[in-house]
Known about the structure:
eight-stranded mixed β-sheet, Rossmann fold, alpha/beta, six-stranded mixed β-sheet, Maf protein, 18 strands
Amino acid sequence: MEITLKGDMKIENVPSLKQKALRINLNENIYGTFAEIGAGQETVRQFFRAGGASKTIAKSMSAYDKDFSDSIYGIESDKRYVTEARLRKMLNHEIGLIEQRISRDKHPNKLFFSFANTVATIDFAKKFKGHGWVGIKYQVEPDQPYNDIVLHLRFKENDARLQQETLGILGTNLIYGAYYKYNEPKKLLRYLYDHLDKDQIEIDTINFSGPVFEKVDNRLMSLQLVKNEMTDAVMFAPDGNNVLPARVLYKKNILTLRGSFRPVTKVNMDMYEKSYNMFIKENRVDTKKTQVIFEITLSNLRAEGEIDEQDFMDRARLLCSLGQTVLISNFQEYYKLVEYFSQYSKNRMGLAMGVNNLIDIFDEKYYRHLSGGILEAFGKLFFKDLRVYLYPMEHDDGSITNSENLKVHPRMKELYKFFKYNGKVVDIADFDPNILSIFSRTVLGMISNNEPGWEEMLPKGVAKLIKQQSLFGCETEEVLHKKTKISKT
């Protein structure tokens, strides 16, 4: 790759698609198959055009007909074709065929790969823009097990032909990065957008596995997707693994709690439990189709300076340990969060929040970028079947603020009354008065200063995890014991 100088800065020249494909083709050991369903043979086309493809391509195919595809890869239990399960079946099947048909004795140095995608491009009505799964299963050493990179994408363009071309570019970038940037996964992630714009495509899930990615934390890689603005939000399941937001949110009733959760406290969990009990009693809310989301917005983390990735991981890990689903988003304003959920569900939604959060919602400064200002934002926020569950705030003098005595800016008073008395804002009445004085920042300070008593402010099991894993600057009992011993001597 050439390097050019601009002033005192070094700027990398991005290799063209032809250069990337040709470098792969000219590597005498890289050899594999392309299986592409739903948008033509767009990735393999780049390699055929570059020249020397006979040294790289064992087979190219598109089992476009569903019955034909089923006869090759089997029938999915959900009868769907654009799924992660389908993609992985394609990758495994094609690798199996290479292993069967190409002799290792004859080709001891070959690095086998299988590239596959299964996608649905934009429909004729242009209501559904399309999405897909893309992946590669490959070796970097002939005697090593296979590595996998699997990602989910959403198309943003409004033309099927453009989407096909975009898919071909992404696929070429993925194959090139898999072989030449696997030891720098964060760079590999950024290079997926070579010759692409973020207005063309969104990558909202990616997972790395295999021997060369043993030290890669897929949750941190998901954070990179949000940090690099490749997607608006990523999601972690209670088991701590990445999960596709669409899979979790589709046609669900959604209750969301936003916070720093640094760390998660008894107040956070009381807010969740009490708001959930209220939410499931609402009309048209089916408990079997209800999803609770704990959301951390990266926009607030950015406001605090450079994002501490380990600190972020600590927050998510604790929430997942409590059996919660975690969303990391780029949304500063609540109405953007509601719009995001509305992509996947038209069912009832609820927002559980504290008094300060609600006051912020009625602050005009957050909506100056909108031509319709706060009214436009509220139209987007409350026109949905949405309700705010308000958790009270206790002051130093023992007084409590709730929806009845909450004070907003004088210009916002009538607007607040309108939503309040139309039932869009309701108080969480059966809160636990004994924990109102607990704040995450207080707990964090006590942990940092090794002050006693913070453990009782957290949900069961959380303090133990913090101590075991030395989270939030907490020193283990062993370290504290050593310090005490040294100070006594």
